[in-house]
């Protein structure tokens, strides 16, 4: 289910709970809606609301930190690729084939990481489909026969960059499917439903109260949407741009 669809379900659950509270208000005996009962309900919902607010805040902060980390990882990956290409260029003309293979592997990486923008690549497993091309670049660099000290130094630097780039690449692939555990999301929605049901229970039945409950439900469900979007940074409405890698792709071979 997409982030938007999940958020709509959350909105319906929360606002539906508020409507249930409004309907129960007219059916409960008056002694169940007295000042003492209201005080108890207010205290309990205050605790539940505070817990829910803290958890939602932590989830937003965690999702945003993960998003920023992966965005920085993409920028660093692009920088490593450009530096690797320049190192191979300084090695000599015998690396022309390797640089061409590097360009092909970067193009394949972009198509698989941003599969929503490249539907033809979405049919393959993004974590295994492009491994062969990148390993071929490593094998070709390893097979070089440096004749001078500068060439030996350049080969060693290229191999080091290949190791670092491979680590970043797999780290990005492993993080692209992070999401909130379903049980955890159900618990959060349950807490919010309880809180909004108590709001509806003591809210007067008129248009202003209904509008406020709708607005509150919309704000909370949008927070869930934001969390889900940030945890899938390579697709959806909020996503990491492929521009750093696109720019690096244009620099390879020059």
Give a written overview of the molecule.
- The protein has 254 residues and is mostly helical.
- It is built from eight helices and no strands.
- Helix 1 (3-25) packs parallel to helix 6 and helix 2 (35-91) packs antiparallel against helix 6 (182-201).
- Residues 120-129 have low confidence and may be disordered.
Q: Tell me roughly what share of residues is in helical segments.
A: over 70%
Q: What percent of residues are in strands?
A: under 5%
Q: List how many beta strands DSSP finds.
A: 0
Q: Counting H and I runs of at least 4 residues, what is the number of helices?
A: 8
Element-level helix/strand string? HHHHHHHH
- Structural class by secondary-structure content: mainly alpha
**Global geometry:** rod-shaped
- Compute the gyration radius: what is it? 27 Å
The poorly predicted ranges are 120-129
Distance between the termini: 43 Å
In round numbers, the mean pLDDT is 86
Q: Tell me about the largest β-sheet.
A: none
